[in-house]
Structures
1.
Amino acid sequence: MKKIVLGLLMIGTLFGQVNSVLTISPTASETILGNQSLAFRNPAMNNLNLIDSTSNISFTNVKWLGNIVDDMGFNYIEFRKGKLDYSLLYFNYGEQKFADESGIVSGNFSPNTIVASVGWGTDILYKGERIDSVALGFRGKVVAHDLYTEKTDGMMFDIGVHFHKLYGAVNLDLMVSNLGIMTKMNGYEIDQPTALNVGFNIPIKNKWNIYNQWNLYDGYHTHGQGVSYNFKDMLWVNAGYYNDVEHELNYSSIGMDLKYEKWKFGFGVLNGDENHPLKNTLLLTINMEM
């Protein structure tokens, strides 16, 4: 039961834990590599997109906790152009039954969370000169929770820094995430998963890429690691491992990205033992260049 609660299943615990959706890495590629959100969605990296004139739009669909329920999941859509990225996350907690004080069921409802965000990256100047290897980024987020009996909303933001090819090889990302304010829900203070995120990736000969990311919360931390193999910029084979000892949420993952002309398809599956709430979770992301 502990794993189920911490996996965002039980509606009674959502009042305190509902903001945990803000810690999800929503695309297939980053999740499979051990939840490498920094390497893929640090807003500071938008500044690097200026060398590419294309726009990218991607869509992700995930059935969450499919080892336990069959109607929980999320959809995520993202659009990138130049220094800006826009995203929308819709998380459905599954159908619930509404009962009165005597226990008589009067209907069904589906609690949900919506997170809309805008990210922006920019140069850092030193004595009027642009620093090629460093960029700064900001992301603003509007969060709305609708649990049927209670609704709340809030605003949060992230601040990120990206260091490109330090010592000619290492990409380093630093970010403070989920700063902001939330209104109370049913008298409960809603936990904000504010964290210091530290991550790096090391490309090797344009074929291999090694990833690591640490997320430092109040009193505990999580760690993800992954490796990717690039075959002729057409096929990427990805594997990773995510470790959250505090919440007993540890799992390995494997998947691939396949590119065909302007389309890129990301596939992945999360692994675990028979009782793991995320066992056999399937991820699919479709990206299109325009």
Note: The two ends are 45 Å apart (CA to CA).
2.
Amino acid sequence: MTDEVLVRAEHICKYFKIGGGRMLHAVEDVNLDIHRGETLGLVGESGCGKSTLGRTLMGIYQPTKGKLIYDGKPVDLSNKKDRFAFAKKAQIVFQDPYASLDPRMTAKKIIAEPLRAFGVPPQEQEERVRALARQVGIPEEFLDRYPHQFSGGQRQRIGIARSLAVKPKFVVCDEAVSALDVSIQSQIINLLKDLKDQQNLTYLFITHDLSVVKHISNRIAVMYLGSMVELATSDELYANTLHPYSKALLSAVPIPDPKLEAQKKRQIIEGDVPSPINKPKGCAFSSRCPLACDKCRQSAPTLKEAAPGHFVACHLVEAQG
């Protein structure tokens, strides 16, 4: 990992029209730097906007507001030509290997699909597909099989091979192991780490599994209701958690030692997540935070550096600071 910024999100917002003139605020004013060669973990509850942010950074969704900068140059995601060119630099591994592969196509055709889209000659396609199959652990003699003839882990390996076909430098892993058996998850995570080292990739690793994200990430960002609430290195976040929401999330991670697990105090978050259609005034977490004060309910905190490299959006941390 270097200090050089490969992907920068500036005030990214993504809203969806849902009828009646109402808007669903899926991602709200996110500022984020992803450094070249790092794995940035992105965690939070289901529905907090993680996948929407990842797909917006990929260009699958156009941002409602804000700007995406790749390798120092702005990317116009509203321009079809720019978006197509950006697809060669950034790719995505989807969550569900059962749904993300075309059942009518062989593994060979699935992996070669991006190569065909970018006009790579057939002979070069063949060589590249076989090389990718070897890299991800799919036997070459299996390439003429269809998705239903593979296991879940093998299907995800095919999905990974497809995402790397055009040699991108930035890869969004959107819950890439959550649909797999636990015994297979570690294999896929280790594969992703090996490919990252071999090809100098940069990952945005989206997950709700905090034990997985610690194993693979250099830094971790925590989202709640579309906003970034904490960002720090993996070790720092686990050792010195600052935001009340992050503390509650981490308290739910099981400890392998039964004695320590029995002694651990869980921090239960009461209440329901507010609606992203009618967001509360002030801090989005204030309605569920046991420490919330009047300031929390009146004004939304901004993400500020509380310690070197450790950012948090919380009035209480500012007050203690």
Note: The mean pLDDT is 90.
